[in-house]
Amino acid sequence: MKKILIPALLLAAAFAGNVQAQSLEKMQWFNEPAEWKIVNDNKFEMVVPAQTDYWRIAHYGFTVDDAPFYYALYGGEFEAKVKITGEYVTTFDQMGLMIRQDHENWIKAGVEYVDGKQNVSAVVTHGTSDWSVVKLDKAPKSIWIKAVRRLDAVEIFYSLDDKEYTMMRTCWLKDNCPVMVGLMGACPDGKGFKAIFEDFEVKQLPDQRRLEWAKKQKTQE
């Protein structure tokens, strides 16, 4: 029987241009807040409720999993991006992207307000949480956050203009399993704040292992 060979270029072409704004109406809630609205096809607003957060154990000794998270389910490899604008008031007010496998395995990345300053921030949790921050010299009105999932890693970037992106973190995340991807906000110590998300989009990427397999098959023709 003749082997059927799939050229790598054909596989890549199947994914070409597959960039789409996630349909906000079709997403779902984990910890739905009292106040939120879809303004138009690409703009989403919520009032992040007080005394909410995502954290597991490390340093503080407690676990919280009660902040709002508006998400859709994605498998495979992808690039997710969103523009965020927050009316931050109290230390630890935060908003951004979240990628969540389950209650013990998740990533949140965006802006966290600390001591009157905006910081680009990432919390990575696998059983216990860790936290990394980079203080911004100036307080931008908005910031763009991008997360790229490739195999068993997620790369996190930020940008002040949606043109030049700076990597802020690379972390592990189990591959070959679906994850929840979406928009989160938290207000651990304050009375709540308004969070605005715009142009949330997810781009499915061709599976790296499959591309490598296809290239190997092509060399055997």
Keywords:
eight-stranded antiparallel sheet, disordered N terminus, single chain, seven-stranded antiparallel sheet, Jelly Rolls, mainly beta, 2 helices, about 220 residues
| Reported CATH architecture of the domain at 56-205 | Sandwich
CATH class of the domain at 56-205: Mainly Beta
The beta-strand count equals 17
Average pLDDT taken over every residue: 90
The CATH topology of the domain at 56-205 is given as Jelly Rolls
Rg measurement, Å = 19 Å
Q: How does the helix and strand content classify structurally? A: mainly beta
Low-confidence stretches: 1-17
Largest sheet: 8 strands, antiparallel
Task: Describe the model.
The chain has 221 residues and is mainly β. It contains 2 helices and 17 strands. It has helices at residues 8-15, 208-219; strands at 19-21, 28-30, 36-40, 43-48, 54-56, 63-65, 69-74, 77-86, 94-102, 105-114, 117-126, 128-135, 143-150, 153-159, 166-172, 179-186, 193-205. Strands 1, 3, 4, 8, 13, 14, 15 and 17 form an 8-stranded antiparallel sheet that branches. A 7-stranded antiparallel sheet has the order 2-7-16-9-10-11-12, with no helix packed on it. A two-stranded antiparallel ribbon has the order 5-6. The longest helix is centred in the C-terminal third of the chain and has 12 residues, at 208-219. It is globular, with a radius of gyration of 19 Å. The two termini are 14 Å apart.
